[in-house]
Amino acid sequence: MFSSWRRWKRELTSRLTIMVVPHGTARPRQISFSVPFILFLFVVWTGLTGWASYMASQKFDYWRVKAKTHLLKIKLDYFANQLKNSRAMLDEVKEMDVQLRSLIGLGSHEAIVQSHAPGDYDSGGPTFEDITELQKLMEGRPSKMTFQAISKQIRLLKSEMKKRITSFKQITRQIDKERNIYRHTPNIWPTNGYITSHFGARLSPFGGEEQSHKGTDIAAPSGTPIRATADGIVRLAGWAGGYGKVIVIDHSHGYTTRYGHNRQLLVKRGDRVKRGQIIALMGQTGRATGPHCHYEVWHKTRAVDPRNFMRQLGS
Known about the structure:
Elements: H1 2-13, E1 15-20, E2 29-34, H2 35-104, H3 109-113, H4 128-138, H5 147-183, E3 194-197, E4 200-203, E5 210-213, E6 216-219, E7 225-227, E8 232-239, E9 245-252, E10 255-265, E11 272-273, E12 278-282, E13 292-299, E14 302-304
Antiparallel strand pairs: 1-2, 3-6, 4-5, 6-13, 7-12, 8-9, 8-11, 9-10, 10-12, 10-13, 13-14
């Protein structure tokens, strides 16, 4: 052990010599350092290197956090701006919803299902956040939103959007229903011509006695096209006594139409027909004094005046 100590002491007191040999004729130079001095320089260099690395890492973390904060601010401003635009767009959608409902006479969803409860009526007006934001704008201060505020607004937008989607689906169903009713309700002239006999009481052309005329007679040259006055299904296409060759169309919604005295039938039982489709050619078959179309409109079990459904000429 004593010998080991002496050896370490000898090593610590020894010197390290560095010789520098230049090119040419200059004399060689040598620099001598003690081992403790070299150890001191190593410790100092290590400390300085560690301190510099620490300071550099601190500075790097600072700039990294600053850059991240700046990026988050840009994102926050972008999302806040998009949120404002979305709210403005949703307000337009709500206004359009109100206008559509007003046009088709729906009213509110609660009015339709008749399920209002106390306190359930919709109310409007700006929120506290809206008032605060407006005050900032009036004072010329920039409006800033936090992530919590944006998250809250997004939840409200999602909830409102679901309501609008439900409302628009309801409006679409109502429009489809109204369109279906319109397509299946007679509203055109069955043929081009002039009326020779109206609906209601009249004197019979066969004998002159008074009778109840269930339809409207429209006269035109033989062979004039007869058209379906609404969408429907042909329930009868054939001979039926005084009607002659007749077509009966079921339009659903309680409406049926009859077209009598035809010369030729162009559809058969079970055919689906569209409004304006040619279904027959005019004639004077059955109990008729001349070529004409005997046109009847029935609603449920009662004959009604066809003139109420002849708003425009068939094309």
